[in-house]
Write a structure and sequence with these properties.
Helix content is about 25%, strand content about 15%. The protein has about 190 residues and is of the alpha+beta class. Strands 1-2-4-3 form a four-stranded antiparallel beta sheet, with helices on both faces. Helix 2 crosses helix 4 (about 100-120). The two termini are about 20 Å apart. Bound molecules: flavin mononucleotide. Flavin mononucleotide binds next to strand 3.
Amino acid sequence: MTSPGLHPLLATRWSPTVFDAAHELSVDEVELLVEAARWAPSAGNSQPWSFVVGRRGDETHRRLVAHLAGSSSTWAPTAGVLVANLCHRFVEDTEWDYSEFALYDLGQAVAHMTVQARALGLHVRQFRAFDRAGLTAEFALPGHWEVTSMSAIGRVPADWTGTGLASPRERRPVDDLLWDGTEREPRPAS
Ligand SMILES: Cc1cc2nc3c(=O)[nH]c(=O)nc-3n(C[C@H](O)[C@H](O)[C@H](O)COP(=O)(O)O)c2cc1C
């Protein structure tokens, strides 16, 4: 259970593996999702992110679906939109980090997108279950960029009964998240 004061956009967020296969996102909605990511903070305003966005039925979506793993291919294609979340990992033609915080910043941008999705009545499931090398080749991604994660974004079916959650939604208690540096490890052994 979330605490009563938690903002509804956060309290009602969860990651479905069930999407309404008839629901489509409008072009304006997709633009708003990207706009939300655009305004995320990043170290030095480096903005180390880009997105490949496919709306169900278009060619980009078909190319994204082709590289899903067996597990995600059972549920992700029914979401209205699939996004490949790209991170600017390295300085071009080097092994130097583009930014110490590139992955951190991409995560924030995707989190912003996730909250904006909630504001639009949508849900997001982020996932790693895809062929990274396959997507890199498919979209001719330069070597200094990485397909870090994907997001399936859509509407949960109106008649969805609550069955089919991939795993129970449990969290460590707040007390466990607060570390005073003296008594125990930051994360207690499970
Ligand atoms: C970076 C990242 C990778 C994830 N990879 C997968 C995945 O490969 N397959 C999957 O079904 N869910 C994946 N998830 C979803 C998580 O399992 C889910 O967010 C977590 O269980 C918490 O559930 P909640 O989002 O409903 O609170 C991923 C989430 C994140 C943020």
